[in-house]
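Need tokens for this chain, all 526 residues.
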Amino acid sequence: MAETVLKEVLKTAEIEVFNPATGESLGRVPILGEQEVNAAVNAAREAALSWARTSFAERRRLVEKVCEIVTSEMDDIAHLISSETGKPVGEAISMEIAPVIDLMNFFARKTAKMLKPRRVPIGLYTLLGRRSKIIYKPWGVVGIIPAWNYPFSIPMGEAAMALMAGNTVVIKPAESTSLTGVRIGEIFAKAGFPKNAVQVVTGAGETGAALVAAPPDKIMFTGSVATGKKIAATAATNLTSTVLELGGKDPMIVFADADLDLAAKAAVWGAFCNAGQSCSSVERLYVESLAAERLTQLIVAETKKLKQGVGTDEDVSVGAMSSERQIRIVEEHVEDFRRAGAKIETGGTRKPDSLFYEPTVISGAANEMLGMREETFGPTLPIATFETEEQAVELANDTEFGLTASVWSGDKRRARRVAAKIDAGTVTINEVLYTHGIGQTPWGGFKNSGRGRTHGAEGLFELVQMQHIHENLLPILPDAWWMPYSKNGVETFRGFATKFATGSLIRTITLVPQLLKRIFELKKKS
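Here are the structure tokens for all 526 residues:
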């Protein structure tokens, strides 16, 4: 039924946005085509010329104004996010609004220092009167294509960082969360950003494809591996730089000496927040066999305490899933667990005629099962066991993904040792999931979890181009390596290779007579 409705809406060149928990229509947005998207990118490129010349102080003032607006309109924004995504309103505040305010304030205050021109040590070339420095220049136009699961924090944070770095941005929100995307554009406009510095282009997949092909100067994409590969292929035709965050199948390793009560609570939150629809959700739990029965019991007990319902009710912990397509993946994975002999400890069913799927705990899982290999992106927590530290690492790394992971142990040395062996962009110790909310730290993954980083200094440097400026402070003599070449010149070059290139000042001093001989040779020939 929903697919039929969507087809009819597309005929009118609009998308109708629905509340996944209630089916209520929330509004409509236009589907912008290639012509409109190209116009937006061209306008952003023109605006970038003047925006790049603004001071860091002015950029900071405007981003801090955005923070003030978001804070003052927090409840309204949270209800919009909850209505579009189905997530609890509490999570809209704790996992989207609060973290992005923190991120924006951090980069508003720190970007000027982080992007300050810096001197580059160049070793013995300094003795030749040379000096190098790095300066940072904005790319120009940054195209942001966020996922539907965090429709506010991802594009808002990436936009603020891009703007602080001197870029303008064009955001293409996910179609199911288009109204949140539109709201972001309104907030930046209300804060006083120049016209066309922040634009929002709404639509379906074709609109996103048009944005990639326009092309902007940089693309920030969050979504599936399949779509990420398509974006990378299109971007390659224009050599457009990309940052891709493509999901995860994140493991949680629990040793028997861990605080099992704490680990159980963490596992439940890590697996079921946002109805499991987080790239960094706990999708695989590996527990040392000695503690498996006890930890499973604790997790089941904690799961049964959770209230599921419409996300705008403040006492709801688990909301609806986002779409029929997503809930069918969960159903398929849970059924595969059943067929393969795993045990459904609690949950495992869908509320009829709805997008609500019960928080589901599964024991007896194994890496060969579908739900342990493919990204589920739903409220499931499969539990498998291990015997040794080496086996735990092997099981955790047995995946095409590598976004986040966590290690739980009372032995800090062991936990750190294991963490260093896991192939993931972020590994937490006795903590889980939430580091996307720490804007000061880099975010991104290994393997098919993506390329590049967002957040942190590393994410900020993705949004600028580094320019090396090299200066000769003593431009009065020719360089020894200039033409015309001669036997004397080649002898000098040998000296560079055997003495100067070693970095040894003492050895280089012995080269000075030959160097001067070569320079005077060139001087005579000039």
